[in-house]
Every structure is written in structure tokens, then in C-alpha cells.
Design a protein that fits this description.
The protein is an alpha+beta fold. It contains eight helices and 27 strands. Helices cover 29% and strands 19% of the residues. β13 and β14 form a beta hairpin.
């Protein structure tokens, strides 16, 4: 009904034969789970009741800078949450996807109304024998019939009064049960500025629907045309950006399939390597049980690191795919079920959302492989009289050392120095010259030997006392690449270590609500313990696995639950 009490004209679209009317998934609020009440469309294309949005905790973004407003590189900007009354720019978080929503000046009620959802709610009510629908005239009794001329829902009493009036006596009345096969049963949308007028025109300059009073007033001399004449042009522009979005959905789905396949391959490879380790250790169970457990622990750490990386990438892709699907599903529903006017009203929000999603960069190839190997040929010294094996012994360009202990014929320590100790460290490929070695006599029967290999690879170490090889000489040593130190900080979270900077990121993948791109303890994605910001490792004295030397980029993920 209009403001002057006259019913507004409506429209009804009949579904093809055999088509199920309506869509129950589009009629219930994701927050309160009830039928939509004054639904509002958010920029992320999720629809929520007006009351539910008004109950959300608002926040505002504050820029705190030292001195004046200069934004030089030496200054730092902190962003924090402040009470609503202290700042004019208010925002909320979408209750579905946690996307930040900047509210317009009018607040929640200034957001776009989802007329498509309102139509679906009415259809849902019709399928329930009119339960929940009240008369448009008296706003008290339940609806029994609908006037097809006025497009008004009427109770039994108002229907009789409608027929007794001269102007409406010949109007066509239809029982609600006869309307269940329709896909559209709504009223024309009134102009928010002139409630007695219907939105039937479109202003090209202002890019929004207007009424006849708007054309002769605020939009005088603006290029305006009927919505039915401009819907083709604007509908085609929405379809074009939709066609550009759909390939991203397919690519993300394929990337997730690759993640799943690689995760399975990684698990199989881990199980195979673990089996190799156990088989190799069977002959030495009593002697090397402790060392074997150490190797399995190292393998499990590698698996955890790789699976964590896969999990983070999977969560990023799933979040982006969910956003993409929301955009595609809503746009397709709008284009197939929405009226011309509803498409034009919603076009701005839909196009802006799809454009933002299409600009997000992502990788469709997993950033982790399943290459894990066990090398039994690499020696790791002596353990209870048996030779055991390890993963590495020395690092390139880093000083390695060992101690030679001299004993007499009875097996007792010599207790004195002065013996002729000769040590040579030679690359096995013999392309490079021998490595320079330093032998230090400790004067107590022990000799400290140090050397610095220049390149990684296999080396032969000759140790001779009085021109005789010691037991086990020559030895084989594997020199691995240089130890990579951590480039980040070992912290509890980026929010604390960066002083609250919004742009600070962390390799653990966690984020905070309100647009913070780094982790904060107690929020989603935080690993629950101190970790390195450069690679996410939990051990403070460890080697960095981030080869780039920078924090892992995470431009896709808002929240991650590990």
C-alpha cells in the first residue's frame, strides 16, 4: 500500500510447468535463522535482516600518528578499534563471511534492500497456506485472497469491503492457493524520496532508478529512460563481468582438487618413508631405538610443516572460492529471477563485488611438494658400538669440528699431548683442492680439529696418528648447504610485535577481525604458541624454511582455523 492508502500496482511471473516455485535457501536469515525481516544486501552479497545487522557490535578505524599528519616513511600508522561514539566512520563484520562492511551515513537502514529476498519470503509464506502474511489494508488479519488488479493481499473482511466499493467492485480476486505456482509475486517498489510514486525510470547520469517526480525535480535535465528500455544494456554489463568471474571459480575448484591429491600423495610418501626407516632399524632395535625415534620425529616435523602449508593454502582457496560462489550464485539468481527494476537497484553492489573478487591474485598450483627422503648412507658417528645414520653432518662455509681421543694399548686415555696428528678433508669428486684444517693439541690426549668446507657435497676425512689411520678412517662426511637464520621475529603474535599495525603479516596464516592482516593471540588462525613470523616454526632455535627471506604472502585469507 502507498502512503495515501491506495494499493500500488504489482507484477506476477508464472513459472514453467513442472518447475518448483521459490527457493527456501533464499528466505531465511543466516544470523537469526528466521524468515527475512526487512532484508539488507551487504557489499559481500550476503543478505541479513535489518534487526540482526543493528544488533552487531560496530567498530571504527582510527589513524593514530605522531605530530602532524605527515605520512613520511619514518612515521608509523596504527589502526585500532574505538567505541562508536568517538568516530564518524562506522563499520561492522558480515556475520556470514567476516567481511568488513563500511556503513553509509544513514547506518544499516541506508544499505540496499534485497527486494529479491522479500519476494522469496512472500512465496514461502504462500506455500504455507498464507501463514505469516497479514492483510495489506487492516494489517491485522491473515490473508485469504489477493486482488490481481491492485496487487494487494486482503483478509476476508477487507475483501468484502473491497468488492462493495464502486472503484474496486470489478477487480479480480484470486485465492492464495492459486498463486503457489508463481515465481514472482510482489509489489512495485516505491521511490524512497517520493513514497507515493513508483520507481519506473532510470537516471543514466546518477546510475540509479528514479520516479516521475524525481525526473522533474532533482534529476531535471538528466538523461532518463524507462527501466524496460535500459535493462538490456545494464543487464548485459552484469552478465559480461559474470562471465569473467566463472572461470575463476573453475580454476579454484581445480586447484583444490590438486591440493587434495597432493595431500594424499604426501601422506602416502610419509608412510612409505616411515616404513623404510622402521625396516632399516630392525637389525639395531636395541642399540638405536632412541636414534630411530629422533629420525621419526624429524620426519613428523617435516610432515607437519608441509601439511600446515597445504592447509593454509587450502583455507585461502576455499575462502576465495566461497566468496566467488556467493557472487556467482547471487548474480545468477538476480539475472534469472529478478525483475528489471531489482536488477538495476542491485547492479552497483553486484558489479563492485565481482570486480574486487576478480582482482584478487591466487595460485592454482600447490606451493608444497611431497619430496621427502631417507639417506642411510650418511654417517652419524657411533651409538653403543653400532654405526648409525643421520640426515646431515656439516654445513657449507661454516666451521665444523671433531675431537680425536688417543688411548694406550690398555684402552686408558693417554692424558698427554705431543703426538703427530695428521688430518685431511678432501672432496670426493676431487675437483676441488683439500680443505684447510686446523689441529689443536689440548695437551691431555685430545686433539681438536676444525675445518670450513666451501661447497656442499661428499667429503673424505683422513685422520692419522703417527702415520697410521685411526679406527674407521677414512670417514665420509656429507656437507649440506649453509644454515638459514630466521629473518623475522619469534613472537606471540604480529599485533603485539608490530605495535598494532594492520598491514603486519605472519607466516602462521592467522588474522584478526576488523581488517588486521596478521595474527593476534586468541583469534582465528593463531597457532596457540610462540612462533617465527618469517616461516611459522614453533622452535626458537631452528633453521628458517622461508627461502625468500620475507614473510609468506597471504593476500587471500581473512581468517584461518588451524
Amino acid at each position: 500500500m502507498s502512503a495515501n492508502g491506495k494499493p500500488l500496482l504489482g507484477f506476477v511471473h508464472k513459472l514453467p510447468s513442472g518447475t518448483a516455485p521459490g527457493n527456501s535457501g533464499k528466505t531465511h536469515c543466516p544470523s537469526c535463522l528466521g524468515l527475512f525481516q526487512a532484508p539488507r544486501l551487504l557489499p559481500c552479497l550476503h543478505t541479513v535482516c535489518t534487526k540482526c545487522l543493528e544488533q552487531l557490535e560496530p567498530f571504527s578505524v582510527v589513524d593514530i600518528r605522531g605530530g602532524d599528519s605527515d605520512t613520511s616513511s619514518e612515521g608509523s600508522m596504527f589502526q585500532e578499534l574505538k567505541p562508536r561514539s568517538m568516530q564518524p566512520q562506522i563499520g561492522i563484520l558480515c556475520p556470514v563471511c567476516d567481511a568488513q562492511v563500511d556503513l553509509p551515513k544513514g547506518g544499516v537502514k541506508a544499505l540496499t534492500i534485497d527486494h529479491l529476498a522479500m519476494n522469496d519470503v512472500m512465496l514461502e509464506s504462500l506455500r504455507g497456506e498464507g501463514q505469516g502474511l497479514v492483510c495489506d489494508l487492516c494489517s491485522d488479519r491473515e490473508v485469504e485472497k489477493r486482488c490481481q488488479t491492485c496487487k494487494a493481499n486482503l483478509c476476508h473482511f477487507c475483501c468484502q469491503a473491497h468488492r462493495r466499493q464502486k472503484k474496486t467492485t470489478y477487480h479480480t480476486m484470486v485465492d492464495l492457493k492459486d498463486l503457489k505456482g508463481y515465481s514472482r509475486i510482489g509489489k512495485p517498489i516505491p521511490c524512497p524520496t517520493h513514497p507515493t510514486e513508483e520507481l519506473s525510470l532510470f537516471c543514466e547520469r546518477c546510475d540509479r532508478p528514479v520516479c516521475r517526480d524525481c525526473v522533474v525535480g532533482e534529476h531535471r535535465e538528466h538523461p532518463c529512460d524507462f527501466t524496460s528500455n535500459v535493462i538490456h544494456k545494464h543487464g548485459d554489463s552484469v552478465r559480461e563481468i559474470l562471465r569473467g568471474t566463472q572461470p575463476h571459480v573453475e580454476a579454484l575448484e581445480e586447484a583444490l582438487v590438486q591440493i587434495k591429491d597432493l595431500s594424499s600423495a604426501l601422506q602416502e610418501r610419509v608412510e612409505a618413508v616411515a616404513a623404510d626407516i622402521r625396516t632399516f632399524s630392525e637389525g639395531y632395535i636395541k642399540a638405536i631405538q632412541e636414534h630411530r625415534d629422533k629420525l621419526l620425529k624429524q620426519l613428523d616435523d617435516i610432515r607437519a610443516q608441509k601439511e600446515n602449508s597445504l592447509h593454509l593454502q587450502k583455507a585461502q582457496l576455499e575462502q576465495l572460492l566461497a566468496d566467488m560462489r556467493t557472487g556467482v550464485e547471487f548474480t545468477e539468481h538476480l539475472l534469472t529471477s529478478g525483475s528489471d527494476l531489482e536488477i538495476l537497484i542491485t547492479k552497483g553492489v553486484v558489479v563492485e563485488r565481482l570486480r574486487k573478487l576478480n582482482k584478487i591474485e591466487y595460485s592454482v598450483r600447490p606451493g608444497v611438494n611431497d619430496k621427502i627422503y631417507f639417506s642411510p648412507q650418511e654417517k652419524a658417528g657411533q651409538c653403543r658400538g653400532y654405526e648409525v645414520y643421520d640426515l646431515h653432518r656439516a654445513r657449507e662455509k661454516q666451521t665444523a669440528s671433531f675431537t680425536v681421543l688417543c688411548k694406550d694399548a690398555t684402552g686408558e686415555n693417554m692424558g698427554r699431548g705431543g703426538d703427530n696428528i695428521r688430518v685431511a678433508v678432501v672432496p670426493k669428486d676431487k675437483k676441488d683442492s683439500p680443505v684447510r684444517t686446523v689441529v689443536q693439541d689440548n695437551k691431555d690426549g685430545t686433539y681438536f680439529v676444525s675445518y670450513t668446507p666451501k661447497e656442499p657435497g661428499l667429503y673424505t676425512v683422513w685422520v692419522c696418528v703417527k702415520d697410521q689411520h685411526v679406527q674407521g678412517s677414512p670417514f665420509t662426511v656429507t656437507v649440506r648447504r649453509k644454515h638459514r637464520p630466521h629473518t623475522g621475529v619469534f613472537h606471540c603474535c604480529t599485533f603485539c610485535s608490530s605495535g598494532g599495525q594492520k598491514t603486519a603479516r605472519c607466516a602462521c596464516g592467522g588474522t584478526m577481525p576488523g581488517g588486521y592482516q596478521g595474527c593476534g593471540h586468541g583469534h582465528k588462525g593463531h597457532p596457540g604458541r610462540p612462533h617465527w613470523s618469517c616461516c611459522g616454526k614453533f622452535t626458537e632455535k631452528s633453521e628458517c624454511t622461508n627461502t625468500s627471506g620475507q614473510s609468506t604472502p597471504r593476500s587471500l585469507l581473512r581468517t584461518v582455523a588451524l
